[in-house]
Amino acid sequence: MKTTLETTADPSAQELAFLGEQLTAFNDADVGASGRKSLAVFVRDEPGKVVAGISGYTAWGWLFVQWLWVDESLRGQHMAGQMLEAAEQEAVARGCHGAWIDTFNPKAVKAYERQGYRPFGALDDFPLGRSRIFLQKSLLAL
Predict the structure, then answer these.
(1) Is 113 helix (H, G, I), strand (E, B) or coil?
(2) E strands, the chain, where?
C-alpha cells in the first residue's frame, strides 16, 4: 500500500470524527468501553446569560475538567469551587473515583488546591515562561 503524509491546519470535521471513532474502537478493545459522557456546569445571571462554567467529561471512572471559566465580575467569590463541587458530585453519581484538571494559571492552581486537588505533573514553558500544571483529586471520600 502506497501512503502519503499530509500536515494540515484545517482538518475536516469528518476526518476528525473518523480519528475519534477509530481511537475509541481501539481503546474499547484494549481496555474496555470508557463510558464517556459529557458533563457541564453553568452559572447564569438573572437574564440567563452564562457567567461561569465548566465543561468536561467522565470516562473510565474519572472526571476530566477540560474548561473552567469565571467571568471577571464573579472572580474571588469561590465560584470555581462551587462549580467543581457540583461537577464532582455528578461524577461520583456516575461512579467516578477521581478527577483531574490542568492549568497554566498560578492563581487557578491555588484555587484547585483549596478544593483538594494535588499536582501530579508539569510541563515547563507551556506557554513560554509558565508551567502547565496537572492536578488530581480522589473522589472516594465524597
Answers:
(1) helix
(2) 37-44, 50-59, 62-70, 98-103, 118-124, 131-138
Judged by DSSP in three states, 127 sits in: coil
Omega cis (within 30) before 47: no
Closest of 92, 124, 38, 142 to residue 134, by C-alpha: 124
Whose cell is 461537577? That residue is 87
Are β-strands 50-59 and 62-70 bridged in parallel, bridged antiparallel, or unpaired? antiparallel
Q: How far apart are CA 111 and CA 105, in angstroms?
A: 10
pTM of the model: 0.91
- What is residue 115's predicted lDDT score, i.e. its pLDDT? 96
Which residue in 67, 64, 53, 119 sits closest to 96, CA to CA? 64
pLDDT tens for 97-123 read 999 999 999 999 999 999 999 999 999
